[in-house]
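Let us work through a complete example step by step.
Step 1: write down the sequence.
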Amino acid sequence: VLLPRSGRLKLTVLSEDRLQMKWKETEGNINGYKVRVKPMAGDSEQEVMLKTKTPKATVGGLSPTKEYTLQVYVLNGSQEALFAKRKFVIEELKNASQTRNNRRNSGAASGKNLTSSGSSAAEHSGVAEATPPPLNTVLTQPGSQFQCDTSAMADIILLVDGSWSIGRNSFKLIKEFLSNLISPFSIGQDKIRVGLSQYSSDPRTEWDLSAYSTRDQVLEAVRNLRYKGGNTFTGLALTHVLEQNLKPEAGARLEAEKLVILLTDGKSQDDANLAAQTLKNLGIEIFAIGVKNADEAELKQVASEPLELTVYNVLDFPLLSSLVGRLTRVLCTRIKEKSPQLSPTDLKISAVTSKSMHLTWSPPLRPPKKYRIVYYPSKGGIPKEVVLDGAVSSLQLSNLTSHTEYLVSVFPLYDTVAGDGLRGVTSTLPLSSPRSLRVSELSHNSMRLSWKAAQGATQYLVLCSAAPDGAEDYTTEVKVAQPEVLLDGLSPSTEYSVAVYAMYGEDASDPASIQETTLALSPPRYLSFSELSHASVRVSWEAASPAVKAHRVAYVSSRGSNAGEVEVPGTATSTVLRPLSSLTQYFISVRSTYDEGDSFPITGNVTTLKVPPPRALKVTELSGNSLRLQWEAVAASDVVVYQIKWSTVGGEKPQELSIAGNVATAVLPGLQKNIDYKISIWAYYKDGARSDTVSVQHRTNSRSPPTNLFVDSETPTSLQVHWTPPDGRIQHYKITYNPVSDAGAQQTVSLQLFCSSVTLQSLLPDRAYKVIISAIHYTGESESTSTTGRTGKCNSQNAHVLHNLLSVSLCGFDMMEAFGLVEKEYSSIKGVAMEPFIFSGSRTFTLFRDTQLTQRTSDVHLFTIPPEHTISILLRLLPETPKEPFAVWQITDEDFQPLLGVNLDPSKKSLTYFNHDYKADLQEVSFDQQEVKKIFYGSFHKVHVAVSHFKITLYLDCKKIAEKPINTLGSISTAGFIMLGKITRTRGPRSGSASFQLQSLQIVCSSVGAEEDRCCDLPALRDEETCPTLAPACSCTSGRPGLPGPPGPPVSSPFHAVYCTHWCCFMLFGHVRH
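Step 2: predict the structure and record it as tokens.
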């Protein structure tokens, strides 16, 4: 570490704000010196710092009246050591230099440490680490006393402790101190005013601020000050200052800054802090000077901030004189700072570029005659000056150095004085460099560079250099006008360094640099595998360059037994490799071919899958003792043979069967009935691999037929058939019947598995019928069982018998019969009329307004509504049908609250089904499609509302309209009522109903069958070719047939109520050609 040596600092004042410093050069190897000039603590002025190689420096822009600390450091590598230190005030240096010159002229001083007689500059020398001489001595020297040159207004109150503890001799030292403190200041009625109060037990005003108007008068008053004596009550004295001395009537000026200088030798006997805080809150600055026994903590409480400038404490009264020099400068500085009328303010530096900046400032309250602007680089440089007229408050600085920090000072110049300088610091911008330099395109022999343009640049210089292996250095230089360049003719796989400069005439910016390596002959990218199977894989990649001519894909198995290579065009991005071996790892490489040769390969590996087994096995029982096994072949083209094995679960000897690989079905013979079999199948592939075994268990079924088949309840037009259901899982029953004499008139119907009886209707009278029944099991159809029965004879000669083929019958309830809407009963019902016309064997009934047809649910024997049901309605709305919603049919509880039903709303032309679901929540499903609106146009329409566990389907005129979700129906109470035409807004048994015409209303316990209805009971929709023909009438006289009678009415509807032995047995009848 370089230790500091004793040296000497020589300071030379060059002008009012410029100082030159020299020192003795240190010994040893050093990197230079750092010079630091710091203003006094608490000063807002920025410090100056610069570096130099030689033992001298010049600093400008300083204030002539401020105190600075000069420090010189020796630089050695990254370390620095303090070499010399000195405090100075430029004004004092000038005064001291003038004094020495006077003494030299009178021969009173030796030539030691003096400037040459011909020197026109003021100089001052001193030992680097020495302290300055006592300030009170300096003040008494003629011509060397510090003067506070300011025209600022200030009101200063001297508050002097006159207690007994001071003593008369010490009080004389206090008066001498006060005189020296007051002497540097310009005292006048429009400048600085000074008042004084002496305090002890009680304060006493010695003279007010307005008492004296000159410095001599004030100094004379100080000399005549009489010692008071008493105790120390500082708080009371501070209150006295506020209430007496700083009042306008005592000479205090509103616009003047106010300072209180407290001098005491002891601790206050009352609370001084509260009174001091009151003064400070009013903006009055307090300086506290302690002597001897003064309480320093109390001084700091009383004084204003910053304490390092406002608190002073000495051990005894003779030492007070040592405070004069520093305190007068601090007071002068504070007065100037508080009174900025001689200094410009608000320096703003704007429009900063690399070569210029614009300065603006606010003039002082007192306009100067001129301004002197000093500016120079903060790291060293020759200061430059500009002098402006005092009416100007802005300046454009030009021809600056780019990317350099500048110190700027603005000094107001008056006739006899220079105001304090206004200082600022800012840096010029660097010459704009290219930004965001990037490689936008890169290949094996070129790269394209682009960047963001630099504003003001005239062109760009691009330097590209590299040193390819085994070759000489390669450097190229390109000048371009636009912010991009294509560098071609480069070598593959070579790293290049590129620097781009923005040119501004002959000046160049800092470069933007980038390093990039040209591509090798680019291999493909993003190798991936897809469509992987046991025998193939798709290999995909992305071409790296449009210059690729072809791609070569090579593969080899991990055992090396299977290898190959495929070449595809350069535009291809994938290929399928086959045939491969299953469960084998393959190493795959893809390389691109260029005119210059092949690229490096991109490689990967993949393992083929295991061969897949057959799937989706399905077993179907055939007649006799055989089964059909079917499966789905996943990879049939690769399968050589399927092997099938089956045996009983009990462990009998298995049987096997081989099937060719292109077949996906097989018949297994020789099986026993009602036995559990395990059937297994696997596949052998071309590469010798065997798939996993897939098995299924199946129990053969005897498919037993129904038993105890018999016929009873014969009528002229119907027979009732009964049977005992067989064992096993049954889907439904198939019943075939025909007259014994006419086998060609055979008809077949299907019946749900829950029924064990059925009524065959619309039969011919007095005919023998053969009935055949079989059970349709899940495993197939059983053998059939047959019997015969005969219909009854006609009881009347003129009886007409409906003769038609039964199309569809369903178990359920005929609401027309339940409400008496039949030909024999309707006349007893008030408000109901039967229309004279008839079609399809059914009458039409008109329900007039407020008829309110109501039946108890229990009287209709409607014990429950199953979750799956269909409501079938054939109706017509009349012109007098009300426009408000009504329920065509509904079930209510005992309080007539609706539980289930179908509503029509003529105003909205919509149909709504409602019920209560399994959670007892009301749910409504509405339909308002365009087709639904037809119901409200005055014609007959047939409506099916088919409800299942999860959905509801609306059919209109045998056409499916819409399907919507719905929750499962809950339990419906049978303790209430069933109502027709109920107005929905009303309640009660006689509260109002709608008028409309009704031809049929049936509740069927199934959600299927509606799609089979062909609407043969609607004249506009009846198709004579597909609808059942009308049955002929018959008459029986003397056992001989008579003349043919007129055709009878057709079957009224594909839906007929069939009353079974229990609720919810239904039949879905199909048609068989005669």
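Step 3: interpret the result. The first helix runs from residue 90 to 106.
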